[in-house]
Amino acid sequence: MGKLVQAMKDPKSQGKGGLNAEIQSRIGHQLRAMYDDVVRQGVPDRFAELIRKLDSPPEDAASTPEQTAKNDGRD
Questions:
Q1: Among 49, 52, 71, which residue's Cα sits nearest to residue 62?
Q2: Phi-psi region for residue 22, left (φ > 0), alpha (ψ -120 to 50) or beta?
Q3: CB 22 within 8 A of CB 3
Q4: pLDDT of residue 54 exceeding 80
Q5: Residue range 3-16, pLDDT digits in tens
Q6: What whole-number distance in Å separates Cα of residue 49 and Cα of residue 42?
């Protein structure tokens, strides 16, 4: 039986709820390893372009909200 399974069956940790420190450490290590790989991959060009478009003002928004209100007769 592996250490992880033994740690999960540890009677000292039963009834406390949650995971013991060894299990938390192993999960944390595995998650960091997985997400480090994802971070190293970077953002695909098409997503970077989409983010740039979302961050920039719309092309038809050359006028300010005040000018738009005047043009709509809401002045």
A1: 71
A2: alpha
A3: yes
A4: yes
A5: 666 666 665 655 56
A6: 13
pTM: 0.39
Residue, of 39 and 70, whose pLDDT is higher: 39
Amino acid identity of 9? K
> What are the helix (H) ranges across the chain?
3-8, 21-41, 45-55, 65-71
Torsion of CA 21, 23, 25, 30, to 10 degrees: -170
- Torsion angle of the four alpha carbons 36, 42, 44, 47, in this order, in degrees rounded to the nearest 10: 90
**Four-CA torsion 50, 54, 60, 65, nearest 10 degrees:** 180
